[in-house]
């Protein structure tokens, strides 16, 4: 089996364990407030770490193309609901930058 | 046609499917993006669809293909995904109490389909929530996620090379689009995400830590510090001051 399939199956197992364990061992009614906040903040923190510096390293020849794409996505997301429009706006701007700059 | 069937199984499942229609639409469109990006990150169409069918998780799947295309090791990817999805543990704990299923197969089945959106719908539904309802709700949500990826990988195979190159940045557009609505709500997410971005960039460039582990370290340390600093303090602060006065 190749590396990607192993990763997919291991991730599936990790996700399933996180989801299934509480159904069988539901002892913890009271989640400590610190842990609750930790879990609440995790997704937003993750997004910050996921965007930088990944966007710079993704286009080693033309980092500006990636940054312009993210800026376009941020503007689209600021004014419109949904995820599809920002993604398309970003692809369009990045494509333009890669072609002409 | 069985349209006259009045069995509770049929009725509850149909109600579940109906509640899942908005989820289906949201998942389908997001998952089309996943299919497109997964193929441009080097996954085969089968791997991409299998990923969605077996994992049924949003941002973590995007993160995983990002790390795969960055050449990260399997361990880094799995730890990052598990960390990002720790919240499922809390959601399942809360849902398990609400649902109160006794049969093991119900628990095993329902657990597989716990997502942010399914959790919200099931938690907010008043009264008893049946296993059949959950089956309809989760089954249809799952279908939207799986079918979207299939549509995405199919569309991706027709795209020209230049557009596929541009799409390697689309992942970050998606992360940005997830972050912007949070930023609009308050200042706290700006500080948290900004600190994580700064620390991750520092770890990656200055300390030469690999992409996956630097994300893991940034996530844990910034979240740990953030949760210690940003307490839901209004009430607690006033409580503490009252206690202080009593001494």
Polypeptide structure, described:
The complex is a heterodimer of chains A (101) and B (247). Chain A has 101 residues and is mainly alpha-helical. Chain A has a domain at 31-100. Chain A is 78% helix and 0% strand. Chain A has five helices and no strands. In chain A, helix 4 runs antiparallel to helix 5 (84-100). Chain A is extended and about 60 Å long. The termini of chain A are far apart. Chain B has two domains: 8-167, no CATH class; 186-232, no CATH class. Chain B has helices at residues 8-19, 21-40, 45-55, 59-69, 74-84, 87-99, 104-112, 116-124, 131-156, 161-167, 170-185, 188-205, 211-229, 233-246. Chain B is mainly α and 247 residues long. Residues 233-247 of chain B have low confidence and may be disordered. Chain B starts with 7 loop residues before the first helix and ends with a helix. The chains are: A mainly alpha (101), B mainly alpha (247). Chains A and B meet through helix 1, helix 2, helix 3, helix 4 and helix 5 of A and helix 2, helix 3, helix 4, helix 5 and helix 6 of B.
Layout: helices, strands, pairs:
The complex is a heterodimer of chains A (101) and B (247).
Chain A: H1 3-24, H2 33-51, H3 54-57, H4 63-79, H5 84-100
Helix pairs in contact in A: 4-5
Chain B: H1 8-19, H2 21-40, H3 45-55, H4 59-69, H5 74-84, H6 87-99, H7 104-112, H8 116-124, H9 131-156, H10 161-167, H11 170-185, H12 188-205, H13 211-229, H14 233-246
Keywords for this structure?
heterodimer, A: about 100 residues, mainly alpha, 5 helices, about 0% strand, extended, B: about 250 residues, 2 domains, disordered C terminus
N/C terminus separation of chain A: 41 Å
Total beta strand runs of chain A = 0
Radius of gyration based on Cα positions of chain A: 19 Å
SSE run of chain B = HHHHHHHHHHHHHH
| Overall pLDDT score of chain B | 86
Query: How many helical stretches of chain A?
Result: 5
Low-confidence stretches of chain B: 233-247
Separation of termini of chain B? 74 Å
| Unreliable stretches of chain A | none
Tell the overall outline of chain A. extended
Task: Quickly count the helices of chain B.
Answer: 14
Largest interface: A-B, 73 and 94 residues
Q: If you compute it from the alpha carbons, what radius of gyration of chain B comes out, rounded to the nearest whole angstrom? A: 21 Å
Shape of chain B: globular
**Biggest sheet of chain A, in brief?**
none
